[in-house]
């Protein structure tokens, strides 16, 4: 699909350096869009930007920002003000593991900023632009933890639930316009961040069995863009959610999700 013709010249990936964010950068560049790439590791982003420009013949702009401080995105809005923006995806996330009260308060503040406040600020900003020009698309990234709840990773799961529910509602609000909005819910996805946090032993092996690549997830998101408000990535994850909802109580589902990280 020529994304540039449909949505505009530039797209922004918030959390672009590796994993799912990197796959989003490649996808929109392959659809002809120039890419604004945001993350904390500027050198890695510059290398990736060069690779993408060489491979797809598009422009790129790297902006260094840490979403743990929601004011960090003001400079992104300023630097993209004159660009013909047509796509946004908020990919970055932050999580810690442990019981709610055992997690230092500063970590909770960082989590709520990365997963909720900065996300909302970016979504609000670019939806304003897309809605005014009646053209554009947003794909936000949620997690199965946002469907089930996520013991020992509780605030992260709640944040993902926020992204899921907010994006679904806004997708419906935009349905009669030329702005396509969608949320993709991911299960286990093979990213550098997952590989660092994977539980050991049988729990880790079990989650890897159904793991998808970032490219598979991003392709599925784009296949469904403009067709549905919300998609769960991969047949295995879809079937699992249906099965849990049909055959188990909510308590059983939550306990199962907690079993991965219970010490
Ligand atoms: N991997 C999975 O199994 C899985 C499962 C379910 C849902 N998801 C969702 O999929 C998305 C991507 O997952 P992932 O594993 O690729 O995540 P990730 O590596 O933790 O984050 C993706 C990108 O976001 C950037 N980022 C992280 N924190 C940031 C911050 N404070 N400020 C600015 N940029 C930041 C990182 O680059 P820098 O380090 O350079 O900033 C990285 O490139 C997340 O929304 C996650 O919730 C993933």
From TrEMBL:
What does the similarity note say?
Belongs to the short-chain dehydrogenases/reductases (SDR) family.
Question: Which terms are listed as keywords in the entry?
Answer: Oxidoreductase
Record's SUPFAM superfamilies? NAD(P)-binding Rossmann-fold domains
Which InterPro entries does the annotation name? NAD(P)-bd_dom_sf, SDR_fam, VLCFA-Steroid_DH
Gene3D superfamilies this protein is in? NAD(P)-binding Rossmann-like Domain
What name does UniProt use for this protein?
SDR family NAD(P)-dependent oxidoreductase
Domain of life of the source: Bacteria
Q: Does the keyword Oxidoreductase apply?
A: yes
Query: Species name for this entry?
Result: Clostridium hominis
Any Pfam family matching the protein: adh_short
């Amino acid at each position: 699909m020529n994304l540039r013709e449909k949505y505009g010249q530039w797209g922004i990936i918030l959390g672009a350096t590796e994993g799912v964010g990197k796959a989003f950068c490649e996808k929109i560049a392959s659809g002809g869009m120039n890419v604004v790439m945001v993350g904390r590791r500027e050198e890695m982003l510059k290398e990736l930007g060069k690779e993408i420009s060489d491979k797809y013949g598009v422009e790129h702009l790297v902006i260094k920002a840490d979403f743990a401080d929601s004011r960090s995105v003001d400079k992104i809005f300023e630097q993209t003000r004159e660009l013909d923006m047509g796509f946004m995806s908020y990919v970055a996330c932050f999580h810690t593991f442990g019981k709610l009260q055992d997690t230092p308060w500063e970590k909770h503040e960082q989590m709520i900023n990365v997963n909720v406040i900065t996300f909302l600020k970016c979504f609000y900003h670019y939806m304003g632009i897309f809605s005014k020009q009646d053209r554009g698309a947003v794909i936000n990234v949620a997690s199965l933890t946002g469907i089930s709840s996520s013991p020992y990773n509780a605030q992260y799961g709640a944040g993902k639930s926020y992204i899921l529910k907010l994006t679904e509602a806004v997708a419906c609000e935009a349905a009669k316009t030329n702005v396509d909005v969608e949320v993709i819910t991911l299960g286990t996805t093979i990213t550098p961040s997952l590989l660092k946090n994977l539980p050991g032993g049988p729990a880790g092996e079990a989650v890897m069995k159904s793991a998808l690549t970032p490219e598979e997830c991003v392709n599925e998101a784009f296949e469904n863009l403009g067709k549905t408000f919300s998609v769960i990535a991969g047949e295995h994850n879809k079937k699992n959610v249906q099965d849990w909802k049909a055959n188990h109580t909510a308590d059983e589902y939550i306990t199962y999700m907690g079993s991965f990280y219970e010490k």
